[in-house]
Structure formats: structure tokens, C-alpha cells
Design a protein that fits this description.
The chain is mainly alpha-helical and 660 residues long. The chain has two domains: 53-404, Na+/H+ antiporter like fold, CATH 1.20.1530; 414-535 and 550-657, no CATH class. The protein has 25 helices and two strands. A two-stranded antiparallel ribbon has the order 1-2. A hairpin with a 2-residue loop joins strand 1 and strand 2. Helix 17 runs antiparallel to helix 18 (439-449). The longest helix has 35 residues, at 178-212.
């Protein structure tokens, strides 16, 4: 029960941090998540006393994250830039471990022997592209820098893990063989890549065979995809390959073959993408919340006099890594395709972009508690140093990037997009109303189309109530005319007298004058009823005692439905006549109210679902056509037109997915 409560608290902290970041996005999301973790650790409950199991953490948290990163990458970019990727993710990682570890040993030879210094350097070498993205969300990062940082973090994680294993082996044995170390590195590194590619191909073929046999359902295909990183990581580790590189390789294979999958299963691929987005965001949040939770625990086990020394060591290591990254890029040891005039800026961006996060934390907590049957005394200090390096790298990035990078700018504002989108939806709805054929189906489609603009529309309650009141006046006036023309029978008049006034008073708020108008209509209907009764007495000479109280017959119900249809038609004409892009949402809501009333009286009437689908497709095409017309006329910028078309296509895809 305590574990379940702890998991719930972790996810709650992630959600709260996301909400706060949504309200005030100037501070990086990772900072909010770390603070949320610290606050979570202060709660008076044992549920937050988490025990980190490194193998389980790597398999359940890190492996899915790396797999998702891999399946979102471009194989074309990888194949054309493999030299640069190897340079920054393998060679730079190795040089960083050697130089940072060597300097640390020279500075503190009695505290950090070579093997121990290399262990610490290996832990802090991997970078985290997700942490960079959380900082640069609202900034314009050069594409070459952004691509280099992303692909570096994809592969240098495995480099750090392999180098850590080699350093731990040297620390345990007290000796190190260069030849043996290089062989182990090559076996683990390239073995993981090859094994992951093979497993990725096998799983892709399995999914395609299932789809060819008409098993194209999410309950089978999606779980296979979600379980892939866990299975691939576990098998790779059993064979002593790099599990992380294996899941990255399997993910890249998925990205290569996804085009074929998307053509055979659009709906499943959309669902898969959505699920992986949720999983990735949740797991990344959990990692940083866990960092915040663990910090107080680790700090409590550290003497205050040593704390400042650990901070200085973290600052030294971060400075060494940052300088190395700058020089590596500045002297083109890695080619990120920077123009000569931008080389210094891009080198600085690459240096600051070496932000650490999930893998560094995982490696720190993966350090063994016992080595050679003795307690590993440096474990707690190394975890703290790694945590400080993570915090320093995030804080430096959060301060420096906004000073160097320009904020993201668009050729249109959110208000301009809202107005343009409302006009687009309004155009399609008007086009549907202009055709008088199949009014029932067209009204249903127009009612649904109006929901497109709800997320971009600020609801005007006052306007809505004014429209409802006006619709009620039209409804009452229509009933007045039908009563005066003796179109409505006595029972129908009584029925409408009760039904309409109840719906009027319940559906909206009315002023004193409007209330008296409604009561006056009620008096007129009563007068009409008495007039009919007198006519009936003169013609029949008697009046049945149950007149006006018997149940409405089927024929009378059909007559009432015709009256309700006439009322709805008059109201629909009025609403259409005053419809504008500014009030399209409020009009749609009023229209929806009367559609529901109409359906109440016509439950047995069927609509042509094929025609409704055809009208929806026609409406989306009208929206795309309107955007193109406005773009050609110069009323929209290309960027705004692209955003509108993207939104329309998304809405269309959502509708198509609902056709089951």
C-alpha cells in the first residue's frame, strides 16, 4: 500500500509541476519538478522513502525514454552525419572522461585515485536533450545546434554507461588493460547496436504480419510497441551488450519502417504516438521529481563541512566539460555545419547545451553499495556531486540561453489565429446552410463543426443569453401564429403551453419585462383554448370529461413534431442571418439546444449516416479551400495558412478516427 501511495504522490508531483510551468513558463520545467520532489520528500509519510533499484530503474524508466527518442529520429540524418555523431558522442565522451578524471586525480590525488576519478567523470558525461528542450521551449535554437545536441544525447548515454562499467571493473581489480578495455568497449557498444537492430526488425515484421492477418487493433499492436524497449533492454543486458544502445537502435529501426506502418494503420499509429508522448513526458517528469526526493536523503548523510567541497568539485567538473565542448566545436573536431560567422556562437551554444539529467542521475544511483565485500564509502558523495552537476548545468542553461538566443517569434499572434480559424469554420457552416437539400443532416454537421472553434473561442455568456431570449421570442411568435390559424389542436396547444414556458424559464434568465411577455403569451393560449372549447360545445353539444387530459396519440405526436420542425426552421433561419465569425460559437450552442428539442420529438426519425460523413468531408475541404483563397488574396501569411491547415487536418483526422 505504501508503494502505491508513493507512485500516486510521484505522479501528482509531476502533474502539479506541469500545471505551475503552464502558468509561469519562464522557469524550466525540470526546476519545477525538482522543487516538487523536494517538497514531496518533506511530507510526513514513509511512502516517499524510495529505494532506488538501478537495474529496474534503467529498464523501466530509461529504456522506454531512449527507445522513444530513437523512433523519433531521422535515419537519413544519422547516415549522412555519422562521423559527427561518433565524434561528439563517443570520442568527445572518452576524451572528457580521461581529461576530467585526470585533472580530478591531480587536484585531489589522495581522495580520487585514477579509477575513482574516471568513475565520477563517466557518470557526469552523458547529456540530456530533453532538459535542453525544457529550457529552450520559447527560444529559437539554430537547427544545426539543436540536431547535434539531440543526436549526441542519443548515443553518449551508452558511452557513459560503458565507460562507467570499465572504470568500476578497474576499481574492483586495481588494474586496467587498455587492449582488453577497448575490446570490451567495442563489444558492448557495437554489439548493442547490432542486437537492437535485429530485434527491432523482428518486432516490426511481427507487427506487419499481424496487420496482414487483419489484427490491426490497438489491444495487440500497441502493447507490443510499448513492451519493446523493456524486452530488448533485458535481452541485451543478458548477452552483456549495451541495453541502452540496443533500445536506441531498435527505436531507429522503427523510425525507418514507420512509413510502411503508417500507410497500413493510420489509426493505430496515431494512438501509438499519443501514448508514447504521454509515457515520455511522465517518465521524464518522474526522473526529475525523484532527483528532488533523493536530494534531502543524500544531504542528510553528508557532513556539512564536506558539502561545500562537493559543490566546488561539481563546479570544477562542469567547467572542464563546458570548456572541452566549446573547444571541440570551435576547432571543428565535430562538424555541425556552422557558418564561419556563427561558429563562435554555435560553439558556445553547444558548450552550454551539455545539460545533464536522466542518465546521469540513473548512473549515480546505480553505483554499488558494496565493492569487494566492503562498503563503497564514496557512493554518497558521488551521488551528491552528480546531483550538483545536474543542477548547475540546468541553472547555467536557464540563465545563459535567454541571453544568447532570440525568443521564438511568429508572423501571427494567438488572437489572429483565433479570428482566422473562426472565420474558416464560419465559412464552412454558411456553405452548408446555403444548400436546402437534406436539412436534417446538414444541421447535424454544422452543429458538430462549430465545436472546432471552441478551444480558440472565448465564450460570451451575455451574448448567449441574448440569443436564447431572441430564439424564445421567435418560438413564442410562431406558436401564436399557429394558434391563431387553428393549426394546433386544443391538446397540442395545452402541451406546448406547458412545455414551452417550462423550457423558457429553465433555459435562460429573463428580465422583468421579458417575464411578463411570456406570461402574456400564456394568457393568449388560454384564451385560444377557451375559444376552441366553445366551438366544440356548439358543434357537438357536449364535452368529454377527459378532453385535454388524455395522452397524446401517435398522429398527434407526429403533428407536434411538424410544429417543432417549423419552429426550429424559423429559429435556424434567424441564427444563420445574424451569424458572424465572432458569435459562431454562441449561435452554435443555441442551435444545439433546439436541435435537442427537435430530436426529443422525432426519436424514430433516422439520419443518413453515409450522407453525414460525406458532408463532413465536404466541409473540411471547404475549410481548406477558404484558407487557400485567403492566402492567394494576401489576407493570410504563409505561416498562418500552414497553421490553419494543420489544425483543420488534425480535426479531420480525429473525425475519421471516430468512424467505427
Amino acid at each position: 500500500m505504501g508503494l502505491l501511495l508513493g507512485i500516486i504522490l510521484l505522479f501528482t508531483a509531476v502533474v502539479v509541476a506541469n500545471v505551475i510551468h503552464l502558468i509561469y513558463p519562464k522557469i524550466p520545467l525540470s526546476i519545477y519538478q525538482i522543487i516538487a520532489g523536494i517538497l514531496l520528500a518533506s511530507l510526513p509519510t514513509a511512502a516517499t522513502d524510495f529505494t532506488m533499484h538501478p537495474e529496474l530503474f534503467m529498464m523501466v524508466v530509461i529504456a522506454p525514454l531512449m527507445f522513444n527518442d530513437g523512433q523519433n529520429q531521422s535515419f537519413r540524418y544519422l547516415s549522412s552525419n555519422y562521423k559527427s555523431i561518433l565524434s561528439i558522442s563517443v570520442v568527445l565522451a572518452l576524451v572528457t572522461v580521461l581529461i576530467a578524471g585526470g585533472i580530478l586525480h591531480l587536484a585531489l590525488p589522495t581522495v580520487f585515485p585514477f579509477a575513482l576519478a574516471f568513475i565520477l567523470a563517466s557518470i557526469i558525461t552523458p547529456t540530456d536533450a530533453v532538459a535542453v528542450k525544457s529550457i529552450t521551449t520559447n527560444m529559437t535554437v539554430p537547427e544545426n545546434v539543436n540536431g547535434a545536441l539531440e543526436y549526441e544525447s542519443l548515443f553518449n548515454d551508452a558511452s557513459g554507461i560503458v565507460l562507467l562499467d570499465l572504470s568500476l571493473a578497474a576499481y574492483r581489480s586495481g588494474e586496467f588493460s587498455l587492449g582488453h578495455g577497448l575490446w570490451i568497449f567495442a563489444y558492448v557498444f557495437f554489439g548493442g547496436i547490432i542486437f537492437g537492430a535485429i530485434m527491432g526488425n523482428l518486432l516490426i515484421n511481427l507487427r506487419q504480419r499481424l496487420m496482414r492477418n487483419h489484427v490491426d487493433i490497438g489491444s495487440i499492436v500497441i502493447p507490443i510497441n510499448v513492451m519493446t524497449p523493456i524486452v530488448v533492454y533485458w535481452l541485451a543486458e543478458e548477452l552483456h551488450f549495451s541495453g541502452i544502445l540496443a533500445v536506441v537502435s531498435a527505436g531507429i529501426v522503427h523510425s525507418i519502417l514507420y512509413d510502411r506502418l503508417r500507410l497500413t494503420s493510420t489509426k493505430v499509429q496515431m494512438a501509438t504516438t499519443t501514448i508514447w508522448t504521454i509515457i515520455s513526458d511522465a517518465l521524464n517528469g518522474i526522473v526529475f521529481v525523484l532527483l528532488g526526493v533523493m536530494l534531502p536523503q543524500v544531504l542528510q548523510r553528508t557532513a556539512p563541512r564536506n558539502l561545500l567541497n562537493l559543490v566546488w568539485i561539481a563546479l570544477l567538473l562542469y567547467a572542464i566539460m563546458t570548456v572541452l565542448r566549446f573547444l571541440w566545436t570551435r576547432f571543428r573536431l565535430v562538424n555541425i555545419n556552422s557558418a564561419k560567422k556563427d561558429l563562435n556562437r554555435d560553439s558556445l551554444l553547444m558548450a552550454i547545451g551539455g545539460i545533464h539529467g536522466t542518465i546521469t542521475l540513473a548512473l549515480a544511483f546505480s553505483l554499488p553499495v558494496m565493492i569487494n565485500h566492503h562498503e563503497f564509502a564514496f557512493r554518497n558523495s558521488m551521488i551528491l556531486i552528480a546531483a550538483f552537476v545536474i543542477l548547475i548545468s540546468i541553472l547555467v542553461g536557464a540563465v545563459a540561453y535567454p541571453l544568447i538566443l532570440p525568443p521564438k517569434s511568429r508572423e501571427y499572434t494567438a488572437e489572429e489565429f483565433r479570428q482566422a480559424f473562426n472565420k474558416t469554420v464560419h465559412y464552412a457552416i454558411n456553405a452548408l446552410h446555403d444548400d436546402d437539400s437534406h436539412p436534417r443532416e446538414r444541421s447535424m454537421v454544422a452543429d458538430q463543426l462549430s465545436s472546432q472553434s471552441e478551444q480558440f473561442h472565448s465564450f460570451n455568456r451575455t451574448l448567449f443569453e441574448q440569443l436564447v431570449n431572441k430564439a424564445h421570442q421567435i418560438e413564442l411568435a410562431t406558436l401564436d401564429q399557429l394558434t391563431a390559424d387553428d393549426v394546433i389542436t386544443e391538446k397540442q396547444a395545452q402541451f406546448f403551453a406547458d412545455f414551452v414556458t417550462r423550457s423558457v424559464f429553465r433555459g435562460s434568465r429573463h428580465s422583468f419585462v421579458e417575464s411578463w411577455v411570456i406570461l402574456w403569451h400564456r394568457v393568449k393560449w388560454r384564451h385560444a383554448r377557451r375559444r376552441r372549447l366553445r366551438k366544440q360545445v356548439k358543434s357537438n353539444g357536449a364535452l368529454s370529461s377527459d378532453t385535454g387530459h388524455q395522452l397524446i396519440t401517435k398522429n398527434e405526436r407526429e403533428a407536434i413534431n411538424k410544429v417543432q420542425t417549423l419552429i426550429y426552421r424559423n429559429i435556424e433561419k434567424y441564427l444563420h442571418s445574424i451569424s458572424t465569425p465572432e458569435n459562431v460559437n454562441e449561435i452554435a450552442m443555441v442551435n444545439h439546444i433546439y436541435m435537442q428539442k427537435k430530436r426529443f420529438f422525432s426519436q424514430d426519425l433516422q439520419v443518413n449516416t453515409d450522407l453525414v460523413t460525406s458532408l463532413f468531408i465536404e466541409a473540411f475541404q471547404l475549410e481548406h479551400s477558404y484558407v487557400q483563397e485567403q492566402l492567394a488574396a494576401g489576407n493570410l501569411s504563409q505561416e498562418l495558412a500552414n497553421a490553419l491547415n494543420e489544425q483543420i487536418s488534425t480535426d479531420e483526422l480525429v473525425y475519421v478516427q471516430s468512424l467505427d
